[in-house]
Amino acid sequence: MDDYFSPWPVVCAIDFGTTYSGYAYSMRPDYERNPLNIECNPSWSNEEMMTPKTPTCILFDKSENFHSFGYDAEKKYRKLAEKAQEKLEIDEEDDSNDSDDSDDSGNEKVEDKIEEDNVTEWLYFRRFKMKLYQDDMMAKQKLKKLKLSAENGKKLPALKVFSEAIKYLKDHFEALLLKTTIRDDCKGSSLNSDTSQEQRHTSVSTRKQETHSERSDSNIVDSNDSSWSDDILWVLTVPAIWSDQAKQFMRDAAIQAGIRDDHLVLALEPESAALLCKQLALTKKAVDIKVQMFEPGSKFMVIDCGGGTVDVTAYKVENNQALRELHCASGDAVGGTNVDMLFINLLNDIFRKDVVERFQNKSPSDWHELLRSIEVKKRGIGLKNPNEKEKELITFSSLGRLIDAFTDLNGHSKNAISKRIQEMDLKKKIKCNGPKMRIDETYLIETVFAGPIKDIVKHLKNLFAEKDVKGIDIILLVGGFSECPLLQDAIKREFPDKTIVNPRDGSIAVMKGAVLFGHSAEIVAQKRIEQGHQLHEVQEVSECVVRRSRAYYGVATDVPFVDGEHLPVCRYTNEEGLSMCSDIFDCLIKKNQEMEIGQSVFEKTFKASSTLANVEIYRSDREVQYCHEDGCRNIGNINALYSDDIGDRRLFKIQLHFGFTEKIAIAMDMKTQKTWKAKLDCIL
């Protein structure tokens, strides 16, 4: 166990989103000079513009080997789809000219190339993050055995898909460090907030040595070594409303991607955004975020509207600028992708579901162009003055093959689609012209946008009725879906007494805030506790976030049996001849209870008769008496592996620490006082 633990020279935060993903990073000396010296990867490109994130999509070849991620995966899959369409057109042409017996060597070459890169044999996954949020599914199925379906219906283990995606982002960042002049010695160059990114990169060798001079971690490599792997703390973002199983799954995926377990922390998405907004206010770097919003005693709410989930947390600023949760994190799967699903439902109603699925399978290039168009529309619809009488028609292109497919299945009538629209009484709301479909904006808003936005507003209204959040008059809107003008307007209308703040670049607030979290004192505190330090030895905890529990957590225990109070079926006689009751839920933390950082809520001492001690952890959304009651389930086991030298049945103690973004279990040999991090396995 080290006597001292200092921060990492480099912090890289991976924001793994439902729709888009990316990373941001900073060096410790830069952070100490100005915490907002945070860089995002500048090279994501969709052939039209540079973006701070790349789509969360991944492509595997027909041998199930990783091929590409993000825009590269989109581009390759689109090319495969175009080749498949080319082959289909060739086959149709051959069918129409089947009397021609001549061979065309050019066509043979095209055929051979298409067979080599057959799109139906490649596995393309997109927006797969939300599979981890399906609690009902996770209660019935082991996450380690979970498989994801690709666009073509083929399946791969979820752990492989997630780990390869994380590995791509990890390798991309490490390559960025190595390919720049980051390791060149700057020989005395000065740094300030106006220093360019390139200048900051060229000085990292010096700054790395600055940090190493204060750090005694034995894992640090020599500053002249070519590897940075031991110098990076990786921060992986997760929704605050995710289960312990989903969080551990992400950790396991990151470890499989090559990130060391002891160099990895998880950051809660809305909390990360709050840290960034607070820092922007304190440094007066944002026009729309005032320093008064984060004065001691002030309260605010963070609504992180992502693609998959909407996470809501409420905070109070303490005298030392620490954040205290006023209510446990809440939310649901009501993110921006719900708009996409409702738009697809609209297409199903118009063209019939089987025709839309045929279009999706046979024209994947056009299909993905349509989905990208929907994503753009989310940020544009509603920008016009609401008082204007005329609503514009919203145009969707790339629908030519869908319209053709519908026409072919309806007797090749040119008027088939017009007839269908008229039958649905939508003649004044939807118009089809060639490959384009134009939809009345008002109708589109009512049909596609209104439902998801209403769900979000309803959740907020219910939350503001809670006594814990009384007095909050500031709402911070962050996340990709927060950039939807319709959502912004709806929240402003429903809560006119609140100050609604949309930070600039709200879609990357989580990503940048996670970097700040990686540099925070809480991480030092967490790592010291993992090394066996007692809570009173960790001075930095007073600066950290005080969180609240999202459920009741407890352990199964036995108590003396009481007639009339306990169930007869749980009665048994122990070795001492006493009548006992088994399966009692011993509550450690109550729902919505405050949790101080590193708070130890459970200790149990074992006599070691083997090399393994096991403690089962249970979770319930309501108060229960027994662990077998409905709604209460075993969500994890603490496994403490001892050394083989057991000796004379020595005593071992297990501690369970709450308050961090993940629960931490520590084991201690009571004779030698040796401590180590026990395995908390939440994926059963």
Automatic annotation (TrEMBL):
| Domain of life per record | Eukaryota
Q: What is this protein called?
A: Heat shock 70 kDa protein 12A
Q: Where is this region: Disordered?
A: 86-113, 188-224
- Which controlled-vocabulary keywords does the entry list? ATP-binding, Nucleotide-binding, Stress response
Here the segments flagged for biased composition (Acidic residues) are 89-105
Q: Which residues form a coiled coil?
A: none
Identify the InterPro entries for this entry: ATPase_NBD, Hsp_70_fam
Q: Which GO terms describe its molecular function?
A: ATP binding; ATP-dependent protein folding chaperone
Q: Which organism is it from?
A: Magallana gigas
Concerning Gene3D superfamilies, the annotation shows: 3.30.420.40
Membrane-crossing residue ranges in chain numbering: none
Compositionally biased, Basic and acidic residues: which spans? Answer: 197-217
Family per UniProt? Answer: Belongs to the heat shock protein 70 family.
